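Quick check before the chapter quiz. The format below is the same one you will see on the exam, so make sure you can read both the input and the output lines.
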Amino acid sequence: MIHQLQYVKMILRKYSDGSATPSEMAMFSLICKIYTEEEILELMADNIREINSTLTTEQLMIGLPIAQSVIEKSLKQGRIRNLRLSLAIAASVFLLIFPGIFFLKNYHPDNTLGSNECTYDGDIRTRYYSCNLLVGDNKPVLIDSSVTGIVTRINDFEILQNTPGVLELRKTGPNKSYSNGVLQEVQVSTGPRQQYMVLLPDGTEVRLNAMSFLSLTVNKNDNTVQIGGEAYVQIPGVSGNKTVFKTWNARIEAEHAEINISSSSGYTNVVLVAGSLQVADSNDLRAISLVSCGDNGIIANIRPEGKPVRDTVIFNKHLDIAQALTWIRSNRLYNGVPLRRFVQDMSRWYGLQFSSLNCIPEDLKVRTVICSQAPMEEALAIIERAGVKIYREGSFLSFCPPDKDEKKSFNYPNNQNSRDVTLHSGQDPQVNHLQ
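Here is the expected output.
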């Protein structure tokens, strides 16, 4: 059905008006991989004509800053001669490539997006960033776009970079299997405000967020990868073998899937984007299967009163995929998310250390968009405008007054009876935004 044009148009239309089901969202992701942007624009033409007469000037203008290049290209090629239709196409491109359409269409005019956006709107281009490579007991090596070709070899294994921003780990044996060479651990890690792509030997693509890492043991015939921090994982499933990801307290196993993994000590959050997988605690005592787009599994350490720490498994359905993956975008949209979640994302991106989040009221939510290249002060200003004060405690930041004894473990937000705090971040004109 993915090659039936009427079906594809229907998926595009439902995604644009915010009515797509989780399975249709997964199909939309597949469409974007199969069709080029120009082909999607052509398929959207009929839908655009239908909505053209009902769009307000404000709605049409929302997409202009990001889709200007599309307009100019279309006009130069003579494919689009009507300026109003060009604006409609621009808005449609914006709505297609910027998840959060429903939020934008229903936002109050006073709360429209301002100058706080990046000039470039799309997935963060990892070729502008760097990572650290550590092999065995050797010194870490900085990998950036200046590194090309083979970085190192370990028996039947080599590490190379042919595409800037993509580090490839490759088996080189004639039958692509490891010999009985020396076992060595390979670790790839990122620092603050960095992202990097890693291509694993089985074809799996891993996008590492800031302050994150992956490690695996080479010259060992298994597909187990350790993940810390946050990563977006795409497992092609071409090898016929299951890939296993381990975090501090969980085990994730999949043969063909797209997954967002967020983990820290005692906590793992897995969101399924496509395919299927199984997530279990580190002792394989409790496990759940994620089979639909938006399925969410959480493995968390809890300490019942008077009892030892144990893992608990939480299952949720219909999570907002665009919100879960906002960290991969140049413009990060937060549509009514808990302030605690925003703080966690910003602390990872900027490498901030907060001693506790317990003094952030659980019901505070935030609506904002922030450019990935915005200065740290902008993110902190958003947090403080939400109504919480930030204190310094040595090298840590805290939301608790210095005279308040705050030693409790992190509590997960209660999303019921919450209130929205509508915020806007102001872009620092001195920031050099990536183009």
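If your answer matched, good. The chain is about 25% helix and 30% strand.
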